[in-house]
Amino acid sequence: MAGTRIDVPLIHGLKIGEAVCKDAKLREATAGDVLEAQEAAERLMMVPTQNGVEPMLVVSPSRVGVEVLRRQIVSIGDVSGPLDLKLMHRLHPEDLNLLLAKSEQLDGAAVAQTQEGVTQRGRGDSDRPASDGADVGDRVKNGME
């Protein structure tokens, strides 16, 4: 199904100037879309911990979904994608829900699986302690030279 595109007729359309564009085209999401969407959805927050307050990257799942969708939009009317977030805000809720539903049909579970894998790998590695007693910076001691 790689490279699949579908036409999605919008219910209310997107008003651009005097024109109301009701013809949307979507494509399958790529791994790059998911990675870029996750990065765009990250916010640096100060989070209370046992040691006081520490900076932490927090990801909004709903923002990830919108960021992936805007990258999947090939066009709405004469406007080429990825659709600007400001234009996404102007969509009628029914049209946004329709585009989200069609993108889910198009992609199946691939986006969720990729997103989960990246999140687990990206977050889990930084939380693990270094190996017991090893001095990873000492190349001679660790037989690296």
List keywords for this structure.
145 residues; alpha+beta; 4-stranded antiparallel sheet; two-stranded antiparallel ribbon; 5 helices; 30% strand
Secondary structure topology:
Layout: E1 5-16, E2 19-27, H1 31-41, E3 42-49, E4 52-59, H2 61-72, E5 73-76, E6 79-80, H3 85-90, H4 93-107, H5 110-127
Antiparallel strand pairs: 1-2, 2-5, 3-4, 5-6
Helix pairs in contact: 1-2, 1-5
One letter per element, helices H and strands E, the order comes to EEHEEHEEHHH
Q: Which percent bin holds the helix content? A: 40-55%
Q: Roughly what fraction of the amino acids lie in strands?
A: 25-35%
Give a count of the beta strands, DSSP E runs of length 2 or more: 6
Span from first to last CA? 48 Å
**How would you write the strand order of the largest sheet?**
1-2-5-6
Biggest β-sheet: count, sense, barrel? 4 strands, antiparallel
Structural class: alpha+beta
* Shape assignment: elongated
Rg estimate, integer Å: 21 Å
Secondary structure tally, helices: 5
Low-confidence stretches: 125-139
**Mean pLDDT over all positions:** 81
